[in-house]
What does this fold into?
Amino acid sequence: MSGDETLLDIRDMRIEGESDGQWNVLVDGVDLTLKRGEVLGLVGESGAGKSTLGLAALGYVRPGCRIASGDIIFDGQDLLRLSDAERCGLRGHRISYVAQSAAASFNPAHALLRQTIETAVQRRLMNAGAARKKAVEQFRELSLPDPETIGRRYPHQVSGGQLQRVMTAMAMHCGPDLIVFDEPTTALDVTTQIDVLASIREAVEAQGIAAIYITHDLAVVAQMAHRIMVLRHGKVVEEASTQRMLDAPQNEYTRSLWAVRELAKPEETTPSSPLLTIEGLDFSYGKGFVKALDNVALTVPRGRTLAVVGESGSGKSTLGRIVAGLNVPTSGRLTFDGAALPPRLEHRNKDLLRRIQLVHQSADTALNPRHTVREIIARPLEVFFDLRGEACDRRTDELLDMIELGPRFATRLPSELSGGQKQRVNIARGIAAGPELMICDEVTSALDQLVQEGILKMLLGLQASLGVSYFFITHDISTVRAIADEVVVMHRGKVVEVGSQREIFAPPHEAYTELLLGSAPQMRADWLTEFLAERGPVARQHAQSTERNGGSTHV
Amino acid sequence: MRADLATKTADTSVRRRSKLLAAAPFAARVAAVIVLIYLLVALFAPLLAPFGEGEVVSEIPYAPPGGAFLLGTDQLGRDQFSRLIYGARNSMGIALATTAISFTLGSLFGIIAATRRGWVDQAISRFVDVIMAIPQLIFALILLSIAGSSIPNLIIIIALLDSTRVFRVARSVAMNVVAMDFIEAARLRGEGLVWIIRREILPNILPTLVAEFGLRFCFAFLTISALSFLGLGIQPPTADWGSMVREASPLIAYGKMSLFIPAVAIAVLTISVNLLVDWFLDKASGLRNER
It folds into this structure.
């Protein structure tokens, strides 16, 4: 294998997808070349065509799509001219794929090892014994705990990060020349993401596998790829080596992607009174076996934003639901605007319901698909302000203007809106009630960077004009920077650290805050290398095991 | 921001709906026409039938088709064609009434069980399980022989037994909707249960329920025909297709095919309704992918 040999050459690729009986262009004349052992990062927003292009590298298109023109030359063979059987023979063996959601991609009924070796055994590339041995080696290489026995577990018995690594092991099992990674760490927590990124990178490097790494996260791709390709609307916007792309992005769109991470809320100087105070709050699911919240205390200042930061399982959403009245705490006290806040929804009067609003994370499930935008936004107006007819319509139009959509959106159904627009409508429904406290549960986390920025700016504008306080639940550090006045860091149901944004981001940190802040990838190509070097023993031990196994694992 | 604002035109869904039938597959269009014909025949039976429902018009039993009697006569010398037309009215009318009752009951309890959960759901669901554990036709036979075979009894018993199945479907589809955040949002607004059911849940489960209505109608229709065939359903002299099959069944030993006429009437209606439902499910609820 010489280093300069071209492994994959996609020429003038044009892929179309059908919707409503029309063929729309998803990937529009993209050229892509990949050398052996090279890692190419595909970056873009949702709908940019990056997954479609990634799958095309396997000679595959999703149902409802077709390749209109172009060639896919993999190691001298044109994938599009091969028979189905020949293409299938390449997939999983010489080209493999790692999907975004490992949990959804594994068969829950079979043990991990059996699924890992399935391709090799079925294709008769190895006998079952050799395949098992190889898989265990691979588990070790990806620094999974207990590599000898982890394969006996079932998908639900390992964590999300481990499952993603098992899936990578599965992809590497037959010794492929090329792996397509489709957002492998997007669904993971930042502290878990690091380990997965590190083990993927080292394993790919050690075996000299070429990879296409698809992600929307620029900081992640900066750690993983040698070269970055930015896609938008199915076209290549810019392509350059990682270092050059980070140092001097040429295209305006690329620069705007970079700029998003720099949004920061200026520090408020005027004093503010507390709106919501929580003291000594405990909450357990079931009969007290799982303690989801443990002695939580915090204050939301009036007209400000309190960001509650933590990873999945930290109890931050539960806390939000308790404030909203959906969960009832085991013990503890909530004070809202000087008066005790009844924990149960049924004990809160209509005005209290109006003053505290919850905006759900996923606008897809929070908006009734059979209601129009007008019906959705007008309902709180009818319930809380008894507005009817023309007055109600006028107020709805005003609200639509406030969320920067305008009255022409009033007749649409949620399915006729984009993700960002849906989230705006979702927020407008909360604002319509004229709340004093709005609980925003990860309202931006499912959205693209640029759309996120638009929504965060809108939320800040609404706060400035309406004086509403936000109880902002998020896992994303850059979102905290963009919107928070006060920050609460949570870990396993406990408050780790409380303070103003400046205090939290300035050292010294609590140990967990340190880990959380440190784990968020930064826009430097050597960030991960430095981080791993600093973290020490785990990384070093890992490097040794890679050395040991690196040479012998080629088939 | 620009990506955020890129959208389609608003009125596409309306246009799509009006084109729905025109774009339907051939089988669905034929099925629609057949069902329509059945309905018209049932509705205008007295106008269409040349003779009365139980009228003995010929001295010859089992007269062959031809002449005044288009399909011949039955064992008592009644006109088969007229009885077939009246049969449409009786069989379909009774099946429709049964389905309507079973639907009201089943979906009401199903939605209540899904929204209330807890012991309410447990109580209703376990009760339904007990009823469903007994084979439906046998259970119906037992209940009919206890209560006596009359048309109201027939309707009520079949409706009750069938409503358990409607309950199952309604409960499970409602359960999916209840888990959605917009239900929680409604609760947070302090909306009442009735409003939540009517405005938030019903619009989302209606397509599935309508399709289920079509299927349930077929089953009710078949059950009634089966009961009539067994002699416990619709009683003579009322004409219905199930009993017509039974009455003509001895003839099959003599190579006469007249029992196939009502049997085919049953089969064609059932298949047509099924085809219609299939197409409706495809289009309206997005439950299946056409590819």
